[in-house]
Amino acid sequence: MGQPISVTFDEDVTDRAAVERQLHVTSTPPVTGSWSWLSDRTVHYRPQGYWPARTHVAVDVDVYGVHVGDGVHGQQSEHVEFDVGAKKVATVDATERVLRLYVDDQLVREMPTSLGRSSSPTPTGTYVVMQQSREYTMRSASYGVPLDAPGGYETPVEYASRLSNSGIFVHGAPWSVRDQGRRNVSHGCLNVSVADAGWFYENFGRGDVVEVANAGPAMEVWDGFGDWNADWADWQAGSALAR
Residue ranges of the L,D-TPase catalytic domain (predicted)? Predict the structure, then answer.
């Protein structure tokens, strides 16, 4: 229900309006939505609010032969359809440190958690599950801290659900179980027990939403699927057809 539609081109698009006129989204039930350009090559579409549960969505990228600027033309068109599943939202307040999971607005599980410590706070905002790995190695080098530098690490974890490109995950962290629900000690991830991480991995998935409140600075719109962190007016302003 939180999955934005992402279209990425392999060349810079200088005539964004011409391209955007050829991008079409239809859904059952209908929603109010907008495209917004995140870069010269990437444009995302999201509704004003989350996709309603069990919505059917069709996307047409009709850019074959369309002049995108600087003498470049679209080389192929695409048609994609997908179905939105149940409404799945997880919420956590960094001052309470309890991850609450809701399915169709019903609370189904609570998980003690530990978020980012003061030196590496978890950004506040709305995240979307991007991908999941049964096993994953966390590396400080992914955000610029070499393994041999102070604070460097490589740590294998289980049941890793990625929430951002900057390295925020929900994952099993047996070393911090005593802190979970009590103190925020992670490098930014949502640490939970291995059992709880496994439950999240099995029952939540790509496109499901995690809302983090009262944590660090605001999550950036461009970080993974951070689209929901733009208010609706700002999101619409990113459309080439809004100008």
Answer: 88-213
